[in-house]
Specification:
Number of helices of chain A: 9
CATH topology of chain A: Rossmann fold
Number of domains of chain A: 1
Largest sheet of chain B: 6 strands, parallel
Structural class of chain B: mainly alpha
Number of helices of chain B: 27
Largest sheet of chain A: 6 strands, parallel
CATH topology of the largest domain in chain B: Na+/H+ antiporter like fold
Order of helices and strands of chain A: EHEHHEHEHHEEHHH
Largest interface: A-B, 21 and 16 residues
Radius of gyration of chain B: 28 Å
Oligomer: heterodimer
Helix content of chain A: 25-40%
Distance between the termini of chain A: 18 Å
Shape of chain A: globular
Strand content of chain B: under 5%
Distance between the termini of chain B: 90 Å
Chain lengths: ~200, ~625
């Protein structure tokens, strides 16, 4: 069984309908640990040793956050800059994260249609996530497509509940090792794989 | 109002206004300034005031009564109770040994045993007024010497009662008729009845404090007339004093008891701020009167006798006190401050000597001599304290300047000077040291200085407001001066001097309260740190978190609140001067609080800001 670590960052979690529902639905799932970064480091002073110990103890890592200004909240960047040390996470001797799975889970206000070359936002979500993808490569990790919740402001409770169900399904499959990187890499989002592939 | 009253008032006030600032400038303390002012306007020099000086003194003694009331107010019964061992131990030792030695010496030079005993008791008294005022001005009240001094003084003040009760008994046995002028309730009663009266009076004050004063003050407070409350406060003090005089007991002690009883009431701060200015003025007047009453004619006529008497008494008192200090394990520096500080004969001695002569225990001439010696000793001890501080302690006690290892000073002095290493300054010092920045420390508690030196800090011992000490601590080359002294007044003094003498130093100041911060802003200080702000907000943030708020949200709210409050501080500091009437500090606190609370409701940034919210977000079609 694979152990999953969710690095969750939301500066205003108490106001986020989508994220509260996503997280509520996976609460208590065995093998899944939630690391609530804004709650642990309200002063942005990240305990690097603690984070490294957590990373070492898990096989799958998820950056889970709301999609702000085409990027992540400041805490995620702070975490990446401080925790992924040279010589530990990357560099010649930096093999601590080698072959661990990693991907982004994000909630975005815009619909999937506005993230297209000829639409309002001009670029796709995958393009916006390139820095994360390359960071994962640098750390010799296996980068997977993102899990994305689109149009959070327009979603009905039912639609949101469906996303929550999918997220739970994703984590269950991951922890049961029922996910093959080569297979899921063909999809743009992990959502797509979950919806098409009924293993 | 007669013109002679105005004339007198003018002279006394002028003496204070002229001489106290001079004394302060010379680093002598206000008490010495008042005393010198009194001597100058007295009969011997300019003769601006004549014999009426004595009457003024009786009137001004009331300042001592008020001071004891205030001391009582600051001393809650629980604290009083905790100090009982110290008070009894040091008190009995000091009173007993001093009385005994004086008794022996006076008997040897031909006093009757009654006179020798009575004088011995009176001479054992030290001056609460001088000592407390001096200790507070020098910021030494909280040191070991300060605590022991307070304990001894309190014991002396308490023992005035039994002494006053005892004196008539001594008079009876000399077979001479006591004068009938002092016809109190006590005279003529047998000894046991006097003791009984004493107990009844003390209990009456404690009981009336609880069941009369407090309801009475509540009633007055409801009327909401400021001057009426002041009147009521004065009435309580004067009433208590009068009652005590009526039954023939010490009015100061009565006032002290009343103060202790009222210390736990809700009016404590109101009373303090109301009585404080009266006390200050009267005490000043008292010191001036003491100075003016020194009978230089007597000194000129019997110079050796007076000199022998004064120095004899001070020497005896010094050694007894020093031994007492040793037993209470005071270190050398603290013991010197304690022993020299209490070396004078106190203001209660005036009362006692007057009574003793009235009772014919002592001849009028000797009575005058004793009173003269008392006044002179009061003038001498502040000088002795000064000599001790400048000449004796630097040489024999804790060195003012640390013995620095060569390397420390050759490689340039430390960039930071911290004045005051109490709970506030020490945290700063520890933090800087942990960050690899060495600071030079200035402190005036010798015990602490010893300890810090042992721990390897560079510590200068002494009054941080002295230019020579600042200079030797490297103020010329340092970059930052951190003023972290407990007493806002001393801190303020330090900043004024630094700004003038060492403009190279960046000054960072601890402010105890908002009002201190206002004063600092007025003085043009930029870096002001209120010791209550961050910690209180921090606690508030943690309270929000315990209530279930997200940590980051609560933290941000706290940070914003501090920013807002700092801004409001600057705005209100300017606005404060619009209020034309002078308000006492505690009053100001209250009205300030009101203003803040009103403002907060209107403009305080709180949890409900709109960061990261997208409720009004309209996704593009």
């Amino acid at each position: 069984m694979k152990k999953i670590l969710i690095l969750f960052a939301h500066p205003r979690f108490e106001k986020s309908r989508a994220n509260r529902m996503l997280l509520a639905n996976i609460e208590g799932l065995p093998g899944v640990a939630l690391n609530d970064l804004y709650e642990h480091y309200p002063d942005f002073n990240i305990d690097v040793e603690r984070e490294k110990t957590l990373l070492s103890g898990h096989d799958v890592v998820i950056w889970h956050y709301p999609f702000y200004m085409y990027s992540a909240p400041a805490m995620i960047k702070q975490w990446v800059d401080q925790v992924l040390e040279y010589g530990w996470a990357h560099g010649e001797a930096g093999n601590a994260l080698k072959d661990k799975l990693i991907f982004n889970t994000l909630t975005a206000g815009g619909t999937r249609q506005v993230y297209l070359p000829d639409a309002h936002n001009h670029f796709t979500i995958r393009q916006f996530l390139l820095p994360f993808e390359q960071t994962a490569n640098l750390c010799k990790m296996i980068y997977l497509p993102p899990f994305v919740v689109h149009g959070t402001h327009l979603l009905t409770d039912e639609a949101l509940a469906e996303y929550a169900r999918l997220y739970r399904l994703l984590l269950t499959r991951l922890s049961n090792d029922e996910l093959h990187p080569e297979t899921v890499r063909q999809y743009e989002y992990l959502n797509d794989w979950l919806l098409t592939d009924k293993e | 109002m007669s013109s002679s009253f105005l004339h007198d008032a003018l002279i006394y006030l002028a003496a204070a206004v002229v001489f106290v600032p001079i004394a302060k400038k010379m680093g002598m303390g206000s008490v010495l300034g008042y005393l010198i002012g009194g001597i100058i306007i007295g009969p011997f020099f300019f003769n601006f005031v004549g014999e009426e000086g004595k009457d003024i003194m009786h009137f001004a003694e009331f300042g001592v009564v008020m001071m004891l009331f205030l001391i009582g107010l600051e001393l809650e019964p629980a604290t009083f109770w905790r100090m009982r061992k110290l008070i009894l131990g040091t008190g009995i030792m000091q009173m007993g040994a001093t009385t005994l030695l004086c008794f022996g010496a006076l008997s040897l030079i031909g006093f009757t045993w009654q006179a020798a005993l009575a004088c011995g008791l009176a001479l054992a008294m030290s001056s609460t007024a001088i000592v407390m005022q001096t200790l507070r001005e020098k910021g030494l009240s909280k040191t070991e010497a300060g605590k022991s001094s307070f304990a001894v003084l309190l014991f002396q003040d308490i023992s005035v009662i039994p002494i006053l009760a005892l004196l008539p008994l001594l008079a009876l046995s000399t077979m001479s008729e006591p004068s009938t002028e002092r016809a109190t309730f006590l005279t003529g009663l047998p000894g046991w009845a006097q003791t009984l009266t004493l107990l009844i009076a003390a209990n009456a004050i404690v009981l009336s404090g609880r069941f009369v004063f407090v309801p009475f003050l509540r009633f007055i407070a409801r009327i909401r007339l400021r001057e009426l409350f002041t009147a009521a406060a004065l009435m309580i003090v004067i009433g208590t004093a009068y009652l005590m005089i009526l039954v023939g007991l010490s009015p100061a002690l009565g006032a002290f008891l009343a103060g202790v009883v009222l210390a736990t009431s809700e009016f404590r701060h109101e009373l303090e701020s109301d009585i404080e200015p009266f006390k200050g003025l009267l005490l000043g007047l008292f010191f001036i009167a003491v100075g003016a009453s020194i009978n230089f004619k007597l000194i000129v006529e019997n110079p050796w006798q007076i000199m022998a008497l004064v120095s004899g008494v001070i020497v005896v008192k010094f050694f007894v006190l020093y031994a007492t200090g040793k037993i209470s394990r005071l270190s050398f520096d603290q013991n010197m401050i304690f022993s020299l500080g209490l070396g004078q004969i106190g203001e209660f001695a005036f009362v006692l000597f007057a009574f003793i002569t009235q009772l014919n225990i002592l001849s009028a001439k000797w009575g005058d001599m004793m009173m003269g010696a008392t006044a002179i000793s009061m003038t001498v001890t502040p000088l002795l304290m000064l000599i001790n501080e400048r000449l004796i302690l630097p040489r024999f006690g804790t060195k003012e300047t640390p013995e620095v290892k060569e390397s420390d000073f050759i490689h340039g002095e430390h960039p930071v000077i911290i004045a005051g290493f109490g709970h506030f300054g020490s945290t700063i010092g520890r933090f800087l040291r942990a960050s690899g920045i060495n600071a030079t420390i200035l402190d005036n508690d010798s015990d602490r200085v010893e300890l810090l030196r042992k721990m390897g800090f560079t510590v200068f011992y002494g009054d941080a407001t002295r230019l020579d000490i600042l200079k030797s601590a490297g103020a010329d080359n340092a970059r930052i001066l951190i003023a972290a002294i407990d007493s806002p007044e001393i801190n303020f003094d330090l900043i004024e001097k630094t700004k003038k003498e060492f403009p190279n130093l960046a000054v960072m100041v601890r402010a105890k309260s908002r009002i201190d911060a206002y004063d600092l802003i007025d003085a043009g200080v930029e870096n002001i740190y209120r010791e209550s702000l961050d910690t209180s907000v921090h606690l508030g943030v943690d309270a929000l978190i315990l209530l279930g708020f997200r940590k980051y949200t609560a933290t941000r709210a706290g940070q914003n609140f501090i920013k807002y409050d700092e801004k409001a501080l600057r705005i209100l500091a300017a606005h404060r001067h619009d209020q034309s009437s002078y308000i006492f500090k505690t009053r100001e606190q209250i009205s300030l609080q009101e203003e803040l609370l009103t403002n907060d409701r209107e403009v305080v940034p709180n949890i409900h800001d709109h960061a990261w919210e997208r409720d009004d977000y309209n996704p593009p079609k």
